[in-house]
Write a structure and sequence with these properties.
six-stranded mixed sheet; alpha/beta; 15 helices; 443 residues; Aminopeptidase; binds arginine; elongated
C-alpha cells in the first residue's frame, strides 16, 4: 500500500479510538425517518447501530411512520387532513395510525433480531391532545407530555434497545399520534443523551438554500458541516419558518439547550453514514453542537508532534521549509493550531520581526480539512493577532500559494521589502515570492 494511504488510515484509526473513548457508555437517540424505513439501506444502517451498541454505546430508536400511516389509511379508505404540515388524527383513523406506528417499530425489532440484539417496544410516553388551535381541532393528534425515563434508563442498563413508536397515551389510556421528530428530541433531553440523530433522506443543511450567519464553514459539496447553538439560532432567525430542514435545526437547538451535547442530521441512504459521522471529526452531515467542538488556539508543547506530522506533506512538496521539533519549541508562542475534538487539523504561525512587522508562516491544513476554509480561519486569526499587537505590516514568503493570500489583501512585494535580518536569511534557491499586507490600509 502506498505510504500516504497507510498514513491516512492510521490517522483515521486514531480518530476512531478517540471517539470510542468519548462515547462509550453514553446514550444516542436515533430517529430513523419514514423515508429510510423502506429503503434497501436500512439493514446495513441497523447493523452499524448494532456495532455501536457492541462498543457499549446505548441506543434508543425512534422510527418515523408518516409514509406507513399514509399507506395504511389509504389502503383502508380513510381520509385525513393536514394543517400546516400536522396530520389531524380522527377517532376512526387512530387505530390504523397505531397499527402503522407499531408496524414500523416491529420492522426495527426484526432487524435487531437479525443481529442477535434484544429490542423492546413499550408504552413509556405520556401524551396530551394538541387540542383546538386557531379553530382547528386536531382530535387524536397529540404532543409529548412526559417520558418515563427511569424505565428507559433501566432498559438501557440491561443492554436492551428500546424502540419508541410515535404514540403516546393520556392518563385514561387514550392514544395520541405524536410527531416522531418531537418525540426523539424530547427523549434525548429527558434521557440527557449525548447525541440525537435525525436520519432522513436529506444530507443536512445545504448552504446555498439559506441566508447563512457569518463565519460558517461549508464542505466542498456546499453542506453546512457544523453549527454552534448560537449559529443555529441565527440561521433560524435569518430564514423564513416552515422549512422542514429548519424544523429539525429548531428541534436540535432545543435539545442542545436541554442538555444534549450534539445533534446530527444525516442522510441514511449514504452507506455507513452513522459511523462516518460518529468516528470522524469532519463527519458526514450537519451537526448542531452545544459543547466544545473546534477551535483555533495557541499551540502547546504537547501539540508539537501532531503539528510536525501535519507539516510533513507540505515540506515534502517544498511548499513549507523544513522545521524540526526544536524549531517549534523555540518559537512555541508564535504558533496557533486548529483543533477539532482534541486532535489538531491545521496550524500556522506569526513570527514577529523588527519595525512592527511580522511573518505569516507554517500554514498547513490536514488533507481531510482541505476545502473547508480552515486555512482561511488560521490566517484570519493570525491577522487579528497582528492587529491586536499593533503591528504595521505582515509579509509572507511563499513558493506555491501566492494567489491564495490575495483574498486577505496581500499584495506583491519583493525581497527588498523584507526586514533586514529576514532579507539576509532569504534563500535565493527557493526563490519564494514575497507578499505584503499593510495592516492600516485594510480594516
Ligand atoms: N465525530 C464527532 C461526533 O460525533 C464529530 C462529528 C462532526 N460532524 C459534522 N457533521 N461536522 O461528535
Amino acid at each position: 500500500m502506498e505510504s500516504h494511504k497507510l498514513q491516512e488510515q492510521v490517522e483515521l484509526i486514531r480518530e476512531v479510538f478517540e471517539y470510542i473513548h468519548r462515547f462509550q457508555g453514553k446514550t444516542l437517540v436515533i430517529k430513523i425517518d419514514g423515508s429510510i424505513m423502506e429503503q434497501p439501506s436500512l439493514p446495513l444502517l441497523v447493523k452499524d447501530l448494532v456495532l455501536l451498541y457492541r462498543q457499549g454505546i446505548r441506543i434508543v430508536l425512534v422510527p418515523g411512520a408518516t409514509q406507513r400511516i399514509d399507506e395504511i389509511l389509504t389502503r383502508y379508505g380513510i381520509k385525513w387532513d393536514r394543517v400546516e404540515g400536522v396530520r389531524i388524527s380522527s377517532p376512526e383513523a387512530i387505530p390504523f395510525i397505531k397499527m402503522a406506528a407499531f408496524d414500523v417499530s416491529n420492522r426495527l425489532m426484526t432487524q435487531l433480531a437479525a443481529n442477535g440484539v434484544d429490542g423492546v417496544i413499550g408504552n413509556w410516553v405520556k401524551a396530551r391532545s394538541l387540542g383546538v388551535r386557531k379553530g382547528v381541532d386536531y382530535q387524536h393528534t397529540g404532543a409529548v407530555e412526559k417520558i418515563d425515563s427511569d424505565i428507559v434508563r433501566k432498559l438501557l442498563a440491561e443492554a436492551l434497545i428500546p424502540i419508541f413508536p410515535n404514540i403516546g397515551w393520556n392518563a385514561a389510556g387514550t392514544p395520541y399520534n405524536i410527531n416522531s421528530n418531537e418525540l426523539a428530541a424530547a427523549l434525548s433531553s429527558s434521557l440527557a443523551a449525548e447525541k440525537l440523530f435525525f436520519i432522513s433522506d436529506h444530507r443536512g443543511v445545504i448552504g446555498g438554500q439559506y441566508v447563512l450567519p457569518e463565519g460558517i464553514l461549508l464542505s466542498e459539496e456546499g453542506l453546512v458541516t457544523h453549527l454552534s447553538v448560537a449559529e443555529a439560532q441565527k440561521l433560524l432567525e435569518g430564514n423564513p419558518a416552515g422549512d422542514p430542514m429548519l424544523d429539525l435545526v429548531r428541534l436540535a437547538c432545543r435539545a442542545c439547550q436541554e442538555g444534549v451535547s450534539r445533534v446530527h442530521i444525516v442522510n441514511g441512504e449514504i452507506e455507513g453514514v452513522v459511523l462516518k459521522e460518529i468516528f470522524s471529526s469532519v463527519g458526514c452531515g450537519t451537526m448542531v453542537y452545544a459543547n466544545e467542538h473546534e477551535n483555533v488556539r495557541p499551540m502547546q508543547r504537547a501539540d508539537i508532534p501532531e503539528a510536525l506530522r501535519l507539516m510533513r506533506p507540505f515540506i515534502e512538496k517544498e511548499a513549507l521549509v523544513e522545521r524540526r521539533e526544536e524549531d517549534l519549541a523555540a518559537r512555541l508562542g508564535d504558533f496557533v493550531v486548529y483543533e477539532v475534538d482534541g486532535l489538531i487539523h491545521a496550524c500556522g504561525a506569526l513570527h514577529p520581526s523588527t519595525e512592527q512587522r511580522a511573518e505569516v508562516a507554517a500554514v498547513a491544513v490536514d488533507e481531510t480539512y482541505a476545502g473547508f476554509g480552515v486555512g482561511r480561519r488560521i490566517v484570519s486569526f493570525l491577522i487579528e493577532r497582528a492587529r491586536a499587537l499593533g503591528l504595521r505590516q505582515l509579509y509572507v514568503l511563499t513558493t506555491q500559494t501566492a494567489d491564495w493570500f490575495v483574498q486577505f489583501g496581500f499584495r506583491e512585494g519583493g525581497v527588498g521589502d523584507l526586514p533586514e535580518e529576514r532579507r539576509r536569511q532569504y534563500n535565493r534557491q527557493r526563490n519564494s515570492r514575497v507578499l505584503l499586507l499593510d495592516l492600516e490600509a485594510v480594516s
